[in-house]
Automatic annotation (TrEMBL):
This is Phage integrase family protein. InterPro entries: DNA_brk_join_enz (IPR011010), Integrase-like_cat_sf (IPR013762). GO terms for biological process: DNA integration; DNA recombination. Keywords: DNA recombination. The lineage of its organism: Bacteria, Pseudomonadati, Pseudomonadota, Alphaproteobacteria, Rhodobacterales. One of its GO terms (molecular function) is DNA binding.
Amino acid sequence: MRLAPSSLRHLVWADIMSLNAIGTGQRIGDVVKMKWEHFSDEGFDFTQGKTDKPLWIPLTDRLKAHLDGLARTDGTVVTDAKGRPVSYRIVAEEIHERHPLCRHITNRQIEDLIASKLVTPEQVRAAGLQA
C-alpha cells in the first residue's frame, strides 16, 4: 500500500482498519512496522512491540483478500509514495481526524454498547468504527 503523506486524507478507512483491528488486532505502532516478510499465505509472524513477545496471527479471509490486492515490495506494508515507512504520528492523526471517537472508545466498549442496545451496529458503522 503506497501512501503519500499528503494523500493520507484520501485513504479509505478500511485499509488501515483491516490491517489493524480487523485483520491483526494490533496497535498502530505495530501496524506501521509490519513488513511483507512477516506475512505468509496462512498468517502473520512477528514480535509485538508492547510485549516484545513473538506472535503468530492467522490471516482472516478479509485481510488475506486485502493484502492480495496490494503490490508487494521490500520493507513495510504501509509506505508513503517514495516507499518509506509511514510514521505512527501521521497514521494516528489521520485516524483521529476522521474518527474522533477512536481516541476514546475500544472495540470491547463498542461490543458492550451494542449488547446493551445503546447503539446499533449500523450506527457504529456510520460513525466509521467497526462492530
